[in-house]
Amino acid sequence: MPHASLLSEPATDPLPLYRLRDGIVSVDLLAAALAHLDFFTWLAEHPATLGAICAHFEIHPRPADVMMTLFNAMGLTTISGGVFHCTLRAREHLCAGSPWNLAPYYVSMKDRAPTLDMVKVLRTGKPANWGSYDPQAWAQAMEREDFAQPFTAAMDCRGVLLGPAMAKKLDLAQQRAVLDVAGGSGIYACSLVARHTHLRAAVFEKPPVDRIARECIARQDCAAQVEVIAGDMFTDVWPAGFDTHLISNVLHDWDEPLVRDLLAKSHAALAPGGLLILHDAYINAEKTGPLHVAEYSALLMNITEGKCYSLAEMRGYLGGAGFEWMEYQPTAVSRGYILARRI
User: Which of 87, 113, 220, 336 lies 20 to 30 A from 213 at CA?
Assistant: First the structure.
């Protein structure tokens, strides 16, 4: 039988603790905008589109989009007809010339290493280095045992809460086999088979994570229902024989072209009518929040090639890949899943 933790819930809500970790760099993004760009002073005088903001400040579209979503969620900007405007709060407290301008308070953070890293991300669109693993990018670092083991453990402890919350809301009575793509420790596949006992599942992971996944799945007492298939989701053909694909907390690590590529690979491997579950943290369609997800998106923008995508963006990507949107359901700690059907 699967471990009891996969069918239980904590008595207390860990959301405040998630927000501390997930929002750790959002202040650095605000500090970079204030201390290095004097962003709000310019925007107050020049309401602008995202493209115009990128052109004026010479910053990359991906981090610029994340920055503006964060400022919308913070109540510092609004958007109307594609044009961003400063709110009264930003005009009073973040613009030069205002008697209540707080920008000098943030200038003291100008030379902090994390703030300088954020400026580089804004300028180049490339992620800062993950921890001390310099100069390897995150994807290459994951091929190293000494990085993959603690990183997978970190994702596993998060999945013990998020996996069961997702599994509890999904109706998979008609499904038989789930492929968990880049499933890390296998915690999400284990959560699905624990709740939906008729399912079998497989975790599709590249070495050395595939070996780590087998160990974690065994510790959850799910080895009889969850296998591990070694492979690279980008370069290998996805395994056949599954009527459901799960992509959990993966797409947010990659920029739009690779997100589209992964959705296309899912479409190619699924038969018509097959289900695709996209479990992640999503920005709302208007890109005005939730604040927690906007803060988390700043972290992802800083350390990966991706961000938190909006529901409107995902609806467009899915439609372009040949999927029919079915529903979005929130689950736990600002996460949720999108359910789509392969046309």
Answer: 336
Does 252 lie in the same domain as 286?
yes
Chain mean pLDDT for the chain: 94
Residues 227 and 277 occupy one common structural domain: yes
Residues in a beta bridge with 276: 245, 340
324 and 178 part of one domain: yes
Express each pLDDT in 67-90 by its tens digit.
Answer: 999 999 999 999 999 999 999 999
Q: Which of 245, 242, 262 has its CA nearest to residue 317? A: 262
- Please tell me whether residue 157 adopts helix, strand or coil conformation: helix
> What is the DSSP code (8-state) at residue 326?
E
Residues 331/337, Cβ–Cβ less than 8 Å: yes
260 within some domain:
yes
Q: Over the stretch 186-219, which tens digit does the pLDDT of each residue have?
A: 999 999 999 999 999 999 999 888 988 999 999 9
Q: The pTM is what? A: 0.93
Work out how many domains the chain is built from and give that number: 2
Tell me the two tokens of residue 68: 């503006």
Compute, in degrees rounded to 10, the torsion defined by CA atoms 295, 299, 100, 59: -120
Instruction: Verify that 203 and 142 share a domain, yes or no.
Output: yes
